Amino acid sequence: MHAEKLRESASRLLLTPGRLAAFLLLAALFAVSVYRAATQSISHDEAVIFEWLLSGPWGQVLNGTHGNHHVITDLLSKLMISIFGTSEMALRVPALIGALVYFFSIFRISTFLFGDGLFFLLSVSLLSLNPFVLDYLCCARGYGLALGLFFYAIDAILRCLGADARDASGVTGLLHHAGAGLGLSIGCNPVMVFPATALALVFLGLRSAESSMRLPDAIVETSVKPRSRNPKKERRRKLRRDAAPSGAWQAFIHFVVPAIALGGFFSLLPQQLIELEQGYFGPPSLLAILEGLVRNSIVHSASGIRGLTAWLPAQTAIRITTEFAVPALLVLVAAAAARAALQWRAQRKFAVLTRTDRTLLLLGAMLPLAIVLIVVSRYLFNQPYPELRTAMYWLPLVSLASLCLVHRLGHGSRLERGFAIPGVTVLVLCVIQFVSQFNTRYFAEWSYCAAGKEMMQRIRANHGSQADAPVRVGATWQLEPVINFYRVAWNLKWMAPVYRESPAGNYDYYVLAFDDTSLVDSLHLQTLLADHLSGTVLAKRP
């Protein structure tokens, strides 16, 4: 019976051409994520976590105390390499699970908010094609799985806001899903505590306000006398209804408590939640956080394709987006949320709000609150502002807010509909730019590792005729964990471990990046491979 319901649900999801097109897009993107997970060179941070937490016995990951210990992801990665052996693919399986959850969630959110027309397809495209987000849906860190679970929680919360309050079991089930998704998201990556806390507080506030503004039963009853019922059954129904928690209490018990329990448990496994590098202070301002996110979203191509920045210089586009477009968007979303709140207050019925208005009400309060929490953590707890991957969740959140705002304008007055046209145009241009920057070769934050696997393959092939002759490799320190990962994964017993020391010594091979590439000339080395994307060089003594 349950299997039949699942099949019926799946058939309904793919009933229209728009939904089928969106499904095919997401399926293709997931296939690309699998391809990247299997073929793309290991990155610095992936290799570092493998060396620190995953290369030894289970006690190494269970007792890990480093602030970069993304507990759930690392536990799943350890399980995968214990079953399938050490490889990039095994390490990245949790990220692929995150990709599945994220794609599933944005499909459901887009369907719930925008139906199945062209705007729905635009929503799925905008939320799924950002190249910087796609990086972390196949990278063996906790960001992708955390993002997927967070949007799973958002989907459940949006449906809960629109659910019939009389369907207690249905609402409770949605709250359980939301609480589990939010708690596990924090367990995958502690940086999610900011948006998760903001989401939980705003949702509790909405539920509390909904309960306080709900009209009493005596007022909404009609003058028509209802048909007589069994008095005993009616009393039992009333007792169950009165005993059941409602409003904010129901949300707290079934949503917040599971989220705190799961998130707290997995976040407290490491004895040290956040470990700061000496001298690291993060971005200097909130706008600087945006600058890195925008840059890596619109300038990401591995082949140098500029896309729309061929007409508008990339730096100009980044500056306009960072300093004007996003701040203006947040103000407009807050204004739309305030208008929805006033409409709700006037009618005293949450049902008068459309799904888009409810989402704007949620995001219009949640996004500013998340910013406040980030600022408070900086000045009260001396935590740096997040940047790049640690702030990556802002990209789909801002995209969702943009979609809801434009959709709301499109269903407003004639003046508002006039503003919706340029809004849709901007969103379409964003999708076009994302597509032009599609990349399957490197992670933007670790572009210098793009050729690491190829260089290690070249060393292994070169050494094939020398049997077990020992080999020493000198490397730029950022590439040391990459080399050691492949040395372990490929069981290269003839290669000595690489340490973080100057590569200027006497070695058999040199893997060089950044300023160290000058050693090729100063040591008169023979270049075996020069990769222009990563800027790295593989060389050996003649």
Describe this structure as you would to a colleague:
The protein is globular, with a radius of gyration of 26 Å. A hairpin with a 4-residue loop joins β3 (526-531) and β4 (536-540). The protein is built from 22 helices and 4 strands. It starts with a helix and ends with a strand. Mean pLDDT is 86; it is low at 217-225, 238-245 and 269-279. The protein has a 4-stranded mixed beta sheet, with helices on one face. The longest helix has 34 residues, at 314-347. The relative contact order is 0.10. By secondary structure, it is mainly alpha-helical.
Topology order in helix (H) and strand (E) letters: HHHHHHHHHHHHHHHHHHHHEHEHEE
Distance between the termini: 71 Å
How many strands, what sense, and barrel or not for the largest sheet? 4 strands, mixed
Form type: globular
Structural class: mainly alpha
CA-atom Rg in angstroms: 26 Å
The portion of residues assigned to helices is 55-70%
Order of the strands making up the biggest sheet: 1-2-4-3
Number of helices: 22
Name the beta content range.
under 5%
Oligomer: single chain
Total number of strands: 4
Uncertain spans: 217-225, 238-245, 269-279
Mean pLDDT: 86
